[in-house]
Amino acid sequence: DDGLNTRAIAAGKQYFGSATDNGELSDVTYKAILDNTAEFGQITPGNSMKWDTIEPSQNSFSFTKGDVIADLAATNGQKLRCHTLVWYSQLPNWVKTGGFNNETLISVMKNHITQTVTHYKGKCLHWDVVNEALNEDGTYRSNVFYDTIGEAYIPIAFATAAAADPSAKLYYNDYNIETAGSKSTGAQRIIKLVQQYGTKIDGIGMQAHLIVGSSPSTSSWTTNMNAFSALNVDIAITELDIRTTTPATAAAVTQQSKDYANAVAGCKAVTKCVGVTIWDFTDKYSWIPSVFSGQGAALPWDEDLVKKDEVYNAILNAW
Ligand code: XIL
User: Fold this and answer.
1) What's the whole-model pTM score?
2) Scanning 54, 107, 135, 149, which has its CA 20 to 30 A from the CA of 262?
3) What's the rounded Cα separation, in Å, for the pair 272 and 162?
């Protein structure tokens, strides 16, 4: 059957996918769309593999919710992007305020990574090992890991994940790195840092939480992706959504369709870009309105789970 994933595969990519979340899976109409591998050949748990879900208190691990998503991927024959191991957000207070020093925080971080990656060993096509480690100017973001361990927390995290599941592709994931600039250069510095440490990094995840009308052109996408290709890493667009002021005007939807097509065309044109994931497929479950007040309508299916033909067809035909 024709669909977004079918087209991505035909273009030589590994998948077109969507984020999902545990609570949504009881929505029968939603789930029927998600389960259709012509549309989605890959899923990412929106929240259920984050630190606060998996290790809410020290050394007490809870994989139940993440397992639901991993099992769904296996049942459907969809690839799984596992998200995320080391991030300053959705991080329990016990990590942030536990008074750990360099040595003890490294041990806490390694334990979290080893337990989690081992639990999902063989199931994750990708792991987002470190998420959002950069400020907008490309310097390191202050967080408990950087402030306590220094930049070495990043290569240590990658080495620990690689040891626990040698076959998972290991990614650094961030936003506002979709075009050339200070933050993209910072992400390239992280890749070189991990490589110089002597451990592997397989890919760069470009989140791509974009805004209608100020999204990258196709050539802007490809120029930036090529800079990562030159470092010998794969590229994935990992959390694509393109928000606008709600209610969306017809003109905004037309522009949004072009913005989506540019992202897909960029990935299509760059050999090392392996696939595109949208950050859920429907406005019904998008994170945007809760975080960006007055914004939304960011996805190709509307709040009633009806496909937006203009946006959907732009994505489909860009492959
Ligand atoms: C978001 C989820 O979609 C929301 O449900 C949650 O409340 C906050 O996190 N960058 C990331 C994702 O890497 O994990 C975030 O997901 C969106 C921004």
Assistant:
1) 0.98
2) 135
3) 20
